[in-house]
Amino acid sequence: MSRRKNKGGRILLGLLIFIVIIVGAGIWYISPSKSLDLKYHSIDVKDKILQMVETRQPEIVLSKDEFAQMSKKNMIEYMNKHNIGVDLTGADFHIDGQNMTVDVNGKWGVLPFGATLQFHMTANGSNLSLEHQLTTIRSLDIPPSIFKLDPIEISLKEYLPDLVTVKKVDFLDEGMKLTFKIDWLSIPSLW
User: Fold this and answer.
1) Full 3-state SS string of the chain
2) What is the pLDDT of residues 144-173, one digit of tens each?
3) pTM, full prediction
4) Closest Cα to residue 71, out of 136, 188, 9, 149?
């Protein structure tokens, strides 16, 4: 009889150890693979606008870093307005034409995780819309029924002077080109 209890105890202990190993492997798998933060700096396009006025070329190019700073700021604002079910603690933005990939770190309750969000960007005048397409944790796709963000809207007007209106946005591999409608007669002479 004692052998049966001892054998049953060993099986239970083995099962418990197996469960602990599986849970530990799962936590390791979803944990962030790099350190990220949500710090950003405001972008200033004043110099680019002045150069645009001097050359009379109604366009400027925002670098991928400038766009990443804008996006990080807008993601923080989005999180403050929406309950997405997780707390994001860091983000790194990559732009490739109309596609944007965001590496994020966050916490789901007390569990830290690292994930990649994929967005498709469209422009309508001065407004950019980022449509969430896919979330992955390492190579595991998370179904939209589990995690899906509403579209994130970015207003370029916030970063531009009132005298310019965005006519067209071209998404580039390394940023974006903004073409403007400008009433050149309303701009005071720089000479």
Assistant:
1) CHHHHHHHHHHHHHHHHHHHHHHHHHHHHHCCCCCCCCCCCCCCCHHHHHHHHHHCCCEEEEEHHHHHHHHHHHHHHHHHHCCCCCEEEEEEEEEECCEEEEEEEEEECCEEEEEEEEEEEEEECCEEEEEEEEEEECCEEECCCCCCCCCEEEEHHHHCCCCCEEEEEEEECCEEEEEEECCHHHCCCCC
2) 888 889 998 888 888 888 778 889 999 998
3) 0.79
4) 149
Tokens linked to 190: 């720089």
Specify the amino acid at residue 108. Answer: W
Q: From residue 39, give the alpha-carbon distance in Å to each of 23, 33, 105.
A: 32, 19, 13
Phi and psi of 30, rounded to 5°? -90, -10
d(CA 170, CA 152): 18
Torsion angle, alpha carbons of 81, 86, 89, 95, to 10: -80
In percent, how much of the chain has pLDDT > 90? 28
